[in-house]
Amino acid sequence: MAELTHLDAAGTARMVDVGDKAVSQREAVATALVVMQPETFRLLQQGAHAKGDVLTVARIAGIQAAKKCGDLIPLCHSLMLSSVAVDFELDPEASCVRIRAVCRVMSQTGVEMEALTAASVAALTIYDMCKAVDRGMVITDIALQQKQGGKSGHWQRGSE
């Protein structure tokens, strides 16, 4: 089993020193799912929600969250992201929004946390903007789908 990397020899939490790692192009893809009542979904899909364009606000929130990941997650490195994309797939049959966040950076460390944070905050923003009509929404399936770059190379969910 691999060792946890945020512990020093004494077992104390620390920020990992990436100073000796090579700078390389890195990318991570994370997803999340927001399940809601059909009427809530229709309001969102039609852009008829009283609070405005829910998906545009959620996209901006996800991007901002990825940029602030180092401030939100203890021991996470602050990165100069080269790009962040947050996209949505509306599924009327399942009455849900599928969120996909892609983060890229040229760095000594990966962007998995940034992608996961972007997907999570986009989902939370959808919840926040729609909760007045549907407090029973469920945010689920937050997961890293793939990462590329760095010493460990490429990883994809389902290929482990």
TrEMBL record:
The keyword Lyase applies. The active site is at 128. Substrate binds at residues 75-77, 113-114. It is an enzyme of class 4 (lyase). Residues 15-150 form the Molybdopterin cofactor biosynthesis C (MoaC) domain. Pathway: Cofactor biosynthesis; molybdopterin biosynthesis. Gene3D superfamilies: Molybdopterin cofactor biosynthesis C (MoaC) domain. SUPFAM superfamilies: Molybdenum cofactor biosynthesis protein C, MoaC. GO terms for biological process: Mo-molybdopterin cofactor biosynthetic process. Its EC number is 4.6.1.17. GO terms for molecular function: cyclic pyranopterin monophosphate synthase activity. Keywords: Lyase, Molybdenum cofactor biosynthesis. The keyword Iron does not apply. It catalyses: (8S)-3',8-cyclo-7,8-dihydroguanosine 5'-triphosphate = cyclic pyranopterin phosphate + diphosphate. Homohexamer; trimer of dimers. Belongs to the MoaC family. Catalyzes the conversion of (8S)-3',8-cyclo-7,8-dihydroguanosine 5'-triphosphate to cyclic pyranopterin monophosphate (cPMP). NCBIfam families: moaC, PRK09364.1. This is Cyclic pyranopterin monophosphate synthase. It comes from Kineobactrum salinum. The lineage of its organism: Bacteria, Pseudomonadati, Pseudomonadota, Gammaproteobacteria, Cellvibrionales.
